[in-house]
Amino acid sequence: SQTIHQWPATLVQPVGSPLSLECTVEGTSNPNLYWYRQAAGRGLQLLFYSVGIGQISSEVPQNLSASRPQDRQFILSSKKLLLSDSGFYLCAWSVGLWEVTLHFGNGTRLTVT
Amino acid sequence: RKEVEQDPGPFNVPEGATVAFNCTYSNSASQSFFWYRQDCRKEPKLLMSVYSSGNEDGRFTAQLNRASQYISLLIRDSKLSDSATYLCVVNIGGGGSGNTPLVFGKGTRLSVIA
To answer: Which of A42, A46, A95, B98 has the highest CB neighbour number within 10 Å of its CB?
Structure first.
């Protein structure tokens, strides 16, 4: 069966520090991968999606970036965190692009201080 | 107007009550509609799709009114375990491959009280 792993679960980082969140999927090949952010009082916001290795699409311009170095690995990064980057970051995968059933990871709760 | 709007709640209801959540969407071209459930500090999970004819899954009933651009979720005989945030989700495309991103509402929080 397919599983998605996301880490770390919780992170507290100072403003201006770098960020690296990692997500891996097991049990499926060539998944469509997504990074979402859920900030307090806001809905789920799509940040990036990827249909294949090295293929990244950005939905919202910001100081975050994403990379997909391997088929089932998706990384979210930042060189310098802002206070507004605080939130709940969720990695997800689906078989088809924009499919109804998104399989989310457990999420990373990021607090920028 | 926001793309997907929901009453944030919280809805505090006693066990056994019937509760209804509403959701409105702004894009009349939207074709697919869903409800996701998100437990506190957890990831969202698909609860059910919403079909034009309405659909039922046990104690849960989802309905769509395209003319009013309105979706609803009805929970009958509420259980303590129903306490969660319910997210309304809309897809402009048909829900299959090659369409558009899912648009999530902010969610409606439900607390079922013993």
So the answer is: A46
